[in-house]
Design brief:
It is a single chain. The chain is mainly alpha-helical. It contains 2 helices and no strands. The radius of gyration is 56 Å and the shape is rod-shaped. The termini are far apart.
């Protein structure tokens, strides 16, 4: 009986040992699968981190490029505003000179046509001087009279 009990105990221990080895094998396989998945996730995460670092670098380069272009546009805009202001001032000066010339010409024309010494009262009737050249009197030199004069 002691031999039978020892054989039964050995058989039970062997079954428990075989079941334990089988479960350990399943656990080892499961652990190996989990480690492979973890390694794959680490690689994917590393790839994503590298891609994000590249995107950040590219974004920084683009941002710098846009900032530089914006600065250049602002500088050009400032220069154009200054040029526009200068040209507007020149236009005002030219308009003022033009207005002064028009005023002077109108005043001169008014004085010429309303002057008491203008016309034939100074000249002898029937002489060449009875119709004096208005251009000569206005300071235009010896320009021929206009038609109808």
């Amino acid at each position: 009986m002691a031999g039978a009990l020892a054989a039964l105990l050995r058989h039970t221990v062997n079954q428990v040992d075989a079941r334990t080895r089988q479960e350990l094998g399943v656990l080892a396989e499961h652990r190996k699968r989990l480690e492979l998945e973890m390694h794959k996730r680490e690689q994917d995460l590393s790839k994503r981190e590298k891609a994000m670092a590249r995107r950040a670098t590219i974004t920084a380069i683009r941002l710098g490029s846009h900032a530089r272009a914006l600065d250049e546009a602002r500088n050009a805009n400032t220069a154009l505003r200054a040029k526009n202001s200068q040209l507007m001032q020149e236009i005002e000066e030219v308009n003022d000179e033009r207005n002064q010339l028009i005023t002077a010409e109108l005043t001169f024309a008014h004085d010429r046509f309303t002057s008491k010494t203008y016309g034939g009262l100074r000249a002898v009737v029937g002489s060449e001087q009875s119709h004096p050249d208005p251009h000569a009197q206005a300071g235009y030199g010896n320009r021929p009279p206009r038609s109808g004069s």
